Amino acid sequence: MAETPGGVSASAVRAAHEIRVVVGRLRRRFKEAYDNEQLTPSQTSVLSRLSKEGPASASALAAAERVRPQSMAATLAALDERGLIQRRPDPGDGRRQLVSVSDAGGAFLDDKRRAGEEWLARALESGYTEAERETILEALALLDRLSRA
Fold first, then answer.
1. I need a surface site. Which of 46, 58, 63, 115 has the fewest CB within 10 A?
2. How far apart are alpha carbons 127 and 70 in whole angstroms?
3. For residue range 62-97, what is the model confidence (pLDDT) as tens digits?
4. What angle do CA 74, 76, 82 make, to 5 degrees?
5. Contacts of residue 56, Cβ cutoff 8 Å, sequence gap at least 6
6. Residues 109, 51: contact at Cβ < 8 Å?
7. Which residues pair with 57 in a beta bridge?
8. If you write DSSP's letter for every residue of the chain in order, what string do you get?
9. Beta partners for 20?
10. Each residue of 49-64: pLDDT tens digit?
């Protein structure tokens, strides 16, 4: 088994590269399949974060997204204008507001996810045999194990 100067096998280096490339390509294809609202990557990231992690203050979101508070304020204003978020007073600190995903924002995210999964299911159905789909499922089990390492 050939090793690179860092002591990692050449196959591991090649696999790491290929995974990175394929995941990036799939992310772009998912975005093409569902992004008809023309949200910026920052807006999409904030909306997804709120959906996964729950309500947060603007300052906490700015820190989590590694942007300036002014940039986060602009992102939140755009999401608010589209009705995708809601704001309410923080019960622990009345001077702050907590931002959360609105019903419309949740529906938007659900539609996005559904559109991406529908595109992928159709592509898998039309472009791959049953045996190839089984191989993909086996590879995904390995990738899931990798994600937990």
1. 63
2. 46
3. 999 999 999 999 999 999 999 999 999 988 888 889
4. 110
5. 49, 50, 64, 98, 99
6. yes
7. 98
8. --B-TTS-BHHHHHHHHHHHHHHHHHHHHHHHHH--S---HHHHHHHHHHHHH--EEHHHHHHHHT--HHHHHHHHHHHHHTT-EEEEEETTEEEEEEEEE-HHHHHHHHHHHHHHHHHHHHHHHHHS-HHHHHHHHHHHHHHHHHHT-
9. none
10. 999 999 999 999 999 9
Give the sign of the dihedral formed by CA 119, CA 121, CA 126, CA 127: positive
Distance between CA atoms of residues 12 and 51, nearest Å: 34
Residue identified by tokens 């999409």 is 44
Structure tokens at 143: 């990738």
Amino acid found at 63: A
Q: Rounded distance, CA 82 to CA 93, Å?
A: 27
Whole-structure pTM value: 0.70
Q: Between β-strands 93-101 and 56-57, what pairing exists: parallel, antiparallel or unpaired?
A: antiparallel
Compute the distance between CA of residue 64 and CA of residue 58 in angstroms, rounded to an integer. 10
* CA 142 – CA 126 distance, rounded (Å): 24
Buried b (16+ CB within 10 A) or exposed e, 103-114: eebeebbeebee
